[in-house]
Amino acid sequence: NAGVMQNPRHLVRRRGQEARLRCSPMKGHSHVYWYRQLPEEGLKFMVYLQKENIIDESGMPKERFSAEFPKEGPSILRIQQVVRGDSAAYFCASSPPITEGLGYSSYNEQFFGPGTRLTVL
Amino acid sequence: AQTVTQSQPEMSVQEAETVTLSCTYDTSESDYYLFWYKQPPSRQMILVIRQEAYKQQNATENRFSVNFQKAAKSFSLKISDSQLGDAAMYFCAYRSAHSGGGADGLTFGKGTHLIIQP
């Protein structure tokens, strides 16, 4: 059973270009999370998606960043008009369906991919 | 909003010795989960150990154990019989037991770089 796949592993873009990062969750997982890790920092939550739905994007920058998880294919994190400050490692994690009730969610481990290191020149 | 603080940017320990990594957190919630993740040079995030806040018993996984002090909001990781393969960045993380409003994502500390001296 393959783990979470991310590609590309390394991506170099010039300022003003677009960056597309892909994440294929583990088999059977329907939940995807994106995190960003700046140098010397911990990971910061960006967005949580289920198939065809954005559940929580409270950690996403308001402009230039978008994410999708289509019915078929990988989840995509898209960064338009990249700037040097976007240089970071971007991690995707996936988890199986979460049992929820009355606003509580049971714990389901998030399995992380190897990350994509984005460098903006 | 929840915050996680790791006050030790770097720790060093002799091989086969025991080391404790510190973590404190701030939350107004009573139900949550706490985690320690390991990030070796490959940058892959690996779950080391997990603790449910409602459990009083400290979690253990082989050579890894935690000291969970809920009232003090402290969650330290003890690594016994340190091995060269334990060298990595270690991140403490928090997740609410509630859903929505960013609660589904993990909140990470800034990490502790663990060095193992042969």
Describe this entry's structure for a reader.
The complex is a heterodimer of chains A (121) and B (118). With 121 residues, chain A is mainly β. Chain A has no helices and 13 strands. Chain A has strands at 5-7, 10-13, 19-24, 31-37, 43-50, 53-56, 65-68, 75-79, 88-95, 100-101, 104-105, 111-112, 116-120. In chain A, the strands form three sheets. In chain A, strands 2, 4, 5, 6, 9, 12 and 13 form a seven-stranded mixed beta sheet that branches. In chain A, strand 10 and strand 11 form a beta hairpin. The model of chain A has no long low-confidence stretch (mean pLDDT 90). Chain B is mainly beta and 118 residues long. Chain B is 0% helix and 51% strand. In chain B, strands 2, 5, 6, 10, 11 and 12 form a six-stranded mixed beta sheet that branches. In chain B, strands 3-9-8-7 form a four-stranded antiparallel beta sheet, with no helix packed on it. A two-stranded antiparallel ribbon of chain B has the order 1-4. Chain B starts with a strand and ends with a strand. The model of chain B has no long low-confidence stretch (mean pLDDT 93). Classes of the chains: A mainly beta (121), B mainly beta (118). Chain A binds chain B through residues 33, 35, 40-46, 48, 55-56, 58-59, 89, 91, 93, 98, 100, 103-105, 107, 109-110, 112, 114-115, 117, and chain B through 4, 31, 33, 42-47, 50, 52, 91, 93, 95, 97-111.
Distance between the termini of chain B: 41 Å
Order of helices and strands of chain B: EEEEEEEEEEEE
- Considering residues with a beta carbon less than 8 A from a beta carbon on another chain, report the largest interface and each chain's count: A-B, 29 and 29 residues
Strand content of the residues of chain B, in percent? over 45%
How would you state the average pLDDT of chain A, rounded?
90
If you compute it from the alpha carbons, what radius of gyration of chain B comes out, rounded to the nearest whole angstrom?
14 Å
Instruction: Look at the helices and sheets of chain B and give the structural class.
Output: mainly beta
Radius of gyration of chain A: 14 Å
- Whole-number average pLDDT of chain B? 93
**Number of DSSP E strands of chain B:** 12
Q: How many helix segments of chain A?
A: 0
In percent terms, what proportion of residues of chain A is strand?
A: over 45%
> What spatial form of chain A do the alpha-carbon principal axes imply?
globular
Query: Ranges of chain A with pLDDT <50 over ≥5 residues?
Result: none
Globally, the shape of chain B reads globular
Cα end-to-end separation of chain A: 37 Å
Relative helix content of chain A = under 10%
